[in-house]
């Protein structure tokens, strides 16, 4: 059985149920429309008007900033590999709707995770101030999105402008909270961060040049499943190697803390994979692909997280 969309990498498989086909009837957006979207896509980590009340070091979560910055960078890396990205950059309306909708969803999920962590670990007074700040930010986010959409009211570009604004505001807010409420880890091992990042990038390139990858481009479910199996096995192997290195280099106290965290992460990884499978049907071929793709995505992301957090 074949599907209309070609599977390129794990992130493509994860988004199969939301992809929108682009046909020759799609209208390309005029340059002035593209310019308005590009104006929203500035360097990540921009700040809001709430910076006047930044927390002190004592009111921040210790040691998680680099890890979460790595997570956020990884999200954009995966979004850039979506099949809609190229067509979106060319100004094709359907692709832009799909891309910005997916991008907003991913960063909104990350924002919720960051906010829940802050809620758990920040001092009560700091969190109370942040809750008020967050309410104002949500109102600003919606107002900005509605304003962007109103410029194209009734047109095909209205939803594109709305989703693009939500995506950029939410992405910026993720970086803002991480930079303002987290500190860098003081616990580092004797390993070069850039060397390991290069190694992780090379794993992805090797997968993309593999025969399994080329076979999966046909969209045949069997080949897609073979690819997701390969991807998960490769990333799981690398994660085990990183974890073994940390076990050798970290103190026993830090390792106990990491073991506890790892147990929780494994449970979350499995839960996410099961939810992905359920969306396509438990036991179905596409459900199995979604399950393996989710495992692969989570494991790849975890590799980057640990490298960002613990390596110099």
Can you put this structure into words, describing what you see?
The protein has helices at residues 10-14, 31-40, 65-80, 83-89, 93-121, 124-150, 158-181, 193-208, 211-216, 221-249, 252-280, 285-310. Residues 1-52 have low confidence and may be disordered. It has 312 residues and is mostly helical. Helix 8 runs antiparallel to helix 12 (285-310). The chain is built from twelve helices and no strands. The protein has two domains: 27-41 and 57-186, no CATH class; 187-312, Substrate Binding Domain Of Dnak, Chain:A, Domain 2, CATH 1.20.1270. The longest helix has 29 residues, at 93-121.
Instruction: Compute the average pLDDT.
Output: 83
Q: Could you tell me how far the N terminus lies from the C terminus, measured between alpha carbons in angstroms?
A: 47 Å
- The portion of residues forming beta strands comes to under 5%
Quickly count the helices.
12
Low-confidence stretches: 1-52
What general form does the structure show?
globular
Question: What composes the largest sheet?
Answer: none
Overall radius of gyration: 21 Å
Elements, N to C (H/E): HHHHHHHHHHHH
Secondary-structure-based class equals mainly alpha
State the helical fraction. Answer: over 70%
Pfam family, one: LprI
Protein name: Lysozyme inhibitor LprI-like N-terminal domain-containing protein
InterPro entries: LprI-like_N
Keywords: Coiled coil, Signal
């Amino acid at each position: 059985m074949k599907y209309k969309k070609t599977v390129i990498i794990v992130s493509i498989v994860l988004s199969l149920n939301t992809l929108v086909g682009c046909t020759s009837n799609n209208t390309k957006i005029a340059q002035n429309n593209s310019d308005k979207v590009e104006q929203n896509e500035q360097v990540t980590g921009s700040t809001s008007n709430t910076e006047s009340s930044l927390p002190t070091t004592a009111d921040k979560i210790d040691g998680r900033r680099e890890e979460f910055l790595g997570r956020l960078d990884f999200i954009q890396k995966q979004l850039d590999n979506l099949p809609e990205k190229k067509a979106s950059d060319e100004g094709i309306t359907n692709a832009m709707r799909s891309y910005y909708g997916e991008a907003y969803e991913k960063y909104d999920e990350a924002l919720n995770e960051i906010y829940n962590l802050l809620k758990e670990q920040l001092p009560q007074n700091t969190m109370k101030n942040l809750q008020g700040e967050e309410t104002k930010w949500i109102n600003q986010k919606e107002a900005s999105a509605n304003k962007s959409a109103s410029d194209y009211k009734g047109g095909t570009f209205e939803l594109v402008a709305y989703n693009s604004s939500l995506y950029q505001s939410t992405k910026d807010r993720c970086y803002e909270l991480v930079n303002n409420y987290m500190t860098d880890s003081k616990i580092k091992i004797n390993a070069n961060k850039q060397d390991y990042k290069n190694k992780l990038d090379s794993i992805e390139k090797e997968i993309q040049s593999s025969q399994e990858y080329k076979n999966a481009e046909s969209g045949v479910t069997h080949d897609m499943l073979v690819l997701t199996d390969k991807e998960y096995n490769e990333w799981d192997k690398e994660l085990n190697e990183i974890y073994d290195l940390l076990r050798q280099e970290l103190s026993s106290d830090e390792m106990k803390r990491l073991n506890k965290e790892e147990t929780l992460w494994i449970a979350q990884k499995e839960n996410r994979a099961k939810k992905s499978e359920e969306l396509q049907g438990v036991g179905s071929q596409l459900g199995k692909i979604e399950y393996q793709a989710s495992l692969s995505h989570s494991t790849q992301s975890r590799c980057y997280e640990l490298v960002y957090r613990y390596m110099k």
